[in-house]
Write a structure and sequence with these properties.
This protein is an all-alpha fold. The protein has helices at 2-11, 17-39, 44-52, 57-64, 82-94, 98-124, 126-137, 140-145, 152-170, 178-192, 197-212, 217-226. Helix content is 74%, strand content 0%. α2 runs antiparallel to α6 and α10 (178-192) packs antiparallel against α11. The radius of gyration is 20 Å and the shape is globular.
């Protein structure tokens, strides 16, 4: 009873069976990705990233830019730098253990999923949060790449956060507050420097907002300024 009261006070939504199922699914999702992180083997693209982060910071960025080809026996990489920068900093503070890196990437993805689920809950109710949790928790593909030592789980987590901010500024109740709009711009920029698909996602989100507010000049100007 106390849990239900806290839930309702914080979210403005009743703690019904859909809310309970959504929470249960998110817990299951966490268990599954941690379990997979503990048994997954290193594959060739991960070996590339693990090799790249052993370089000095300047040399790593130069290598990613294509100026240091063929320095490893594994294939070179041209991925945008965010995931490499994150891993480069992590291994210098916490060590280069494979499991730690996997759990780091999985945690970023999971945080993005929870953030989007919470946004759906606040904006659209417990059924929307349950539907999203069901989609994610039962997706073998998402569970599989969540702990990968690559950019994909980080990009997915950022995409979830960007989608959450997009939803906040696209609902009818949005009064033109620029904070979620500029947070969307920041996350969209980070996603672009994490994976090339971030550029496609960013263009799609800001394009959709432009269409959404094409008849509302003040909101459209704010959206263009943020984008």
């Amino acid at each position: 009873m106390q849990v239900a009261t806290i839930f309702e006070n914080r979210t403005g939504q009743p703690f019904d069976r859909y809310a309970g199922l959504a929470v249960g699914l998110l817990v299951l999702f966490a268990v599954l990705i941690v379990r997979y992180a503990l048994v997954q083997n290193v594959w060739i693209d991960e070996a590339t990233q693990l090799s790249g982060i052993t370089l000095s910071l300047s040399k790593m960025l130069s290598w990613l830019s294509g100026h240091e080809p063929g320095i490893f026996v594994v294939p070179d990489d041209r991925m945008p730098p965010v995931s490499y920068l994150l891993d480069w900093g992590w291994v210098r503070i916490f060590g280069d253990g494979e499991t730690g890196l996997r759990l780091l990437h999985a945690a970023i993805l999971y945080a993005g999923v929870v953030f989007l689920a919470a946004t759906l809950l606040r904006l659209y109710g417990t059924r929307a949060a349950f539907a999203f949790a069901l989609l994610v928790a039962l997706s073998p593909k998402i569970i599989g790449f969540a702990p990968e030592i690559r950019a994909y789980p980080i990009f997915f987590g950022l995409a979830c956060v960007a989608t959450a901010f997009f939803l906040r500024v696209s609902v009818n109740s949005w009064q033109g507050n620029v904070r979620p709009l500029f947070l969307l711009a920041i996350v969209a920029t980070l996603s672009t420097y994490t994976h090339f698909y971030g550029l496609v996602m960013s263009a799609a989100l800001f394009g959709a907002l432009s269409v959404r507010y094409i008849l509302d000049r003040s909101k459209l100007i704010k959206e263009i300024a943020a984008g």
